[in-house]
Design brief:
The protein has 260 residues and is of the alpha+beta class. It has one domain. Helix content is 25%, strand content 21%. It contains five helices and ten strands; from the N terminus they run βββαβββββαββααα. The protein is globular.
């Protein structure tokens, strides 16, 4: 163990893993450190983190860094590969990349970068007009679809990072796979638009992977309940049949708070 990420709402520990003499940094989230939630069963967030990785890998998009269940110093928890910026601080620890990955931001309306999509306009505490915006980026498009599949209730801008290789990665997926529709995200810029053909092809294939005989269904057993796996399959089928990005629901808050 090297330290704790103090801004996290649940116990989130910065640690190191070693295999065959190779060491890497990771994030360890023990089940014992999870705060009770009214809308998610207790003690399930770590498994949802791992399930998000399973679905990400099954889609073939590598949205989620490698994540596994392990028995650590504080008991069982999720262990996820640390996404750093490629540099280290004065203590030799990996630096955290810029939240938003350079593709999500909050800016004055007149400073929206060319080609970016506006999600909403609001006011700062001082009364200044601000816009929540994101880039029209292919990696971000796939992340938005992944969030719809996983029913991600907490896609904040700060949960999007760029790894040293330039790929966009999503982190913090404990609030996923709920039976009820809970999609809350900052990535609404494509709402209602047609899905790209390559994304649609992936979703059609993924429907088969989520049947009871499918490989992803098998990997999700023990991580999610049968009802949660079945509901995930329903979401994928509906996305594939509609061929469009989802729209915000009128019965819930569609954007997490805070957005970053």
């Amino acid at each position: 163990m090297r330290g704790r990420l103090v801004d996290a709402s649940n116990a989130t520990l910065f640690a190191a893993v070693t295999l065959d003499g190779v060491e890497g940094a990771c994030v360890y989230k023990p089940v014992a450190g999870e705060r009770p939630l009214w809308d998610f069963p207790g003690g399930t967030l770590a498994r949802r983190e791992v399930a998000a990785y399973v679905v990400s890998a099954g889609l073939g998009w590598d949205v989620v860094p490698p994540t596994v269940l392990r028995d650590g110093p504080f008991g069982e928890g999720s262990v996820q590969w640390w996404i750093g910026s490629g540099g280290t601080d004065e203590d030799g620890d990996p630096l955290v990349p810029e939240p938003g990955g350079g593709v999500v931001d909050i800016v004055p309306p007149e400073q929206v970068p060319p080609g970016w999509l506006q999600v909403l306009r609001a006011q700062s505490y001082e009364g200044a007009a601000m816009s929540l915006v994101h880039a029209d980026d292919p990696q971000l498009r796939r992340m938005a679809v992944f969030d719809a599949v996983a029913n991600n209730a907490d896609r904040k801008g700060g949960h999007i990072l760029r790894d040293p290789g330039g790929a966009l990665r999503g982190v913090d997926h404990g609030l996923t796979f709920n039976i009820e529709e809970k999609l809350r995200t900052v990535l609404w810029g494509w709402a209602g638009r047609r899905l790209p053909p390559d994304v649609l092809d992936v979703l059609v294939r993924f429907c088969a992977d989520l049947t009871e005989e499918g490989r992803v269904h098998e990997q999700l057993r023990g991580l999610l309940t049968p009802a949660e796996i079945a509901r995930t399959a329903v979401r994928v089928t509906r996305l594939a049949e509609s061929g469009r990005y989802p729209r915000p629901g009128a019965s819930r808050h569609p954007i997490p708070w805070p957005a970053f």
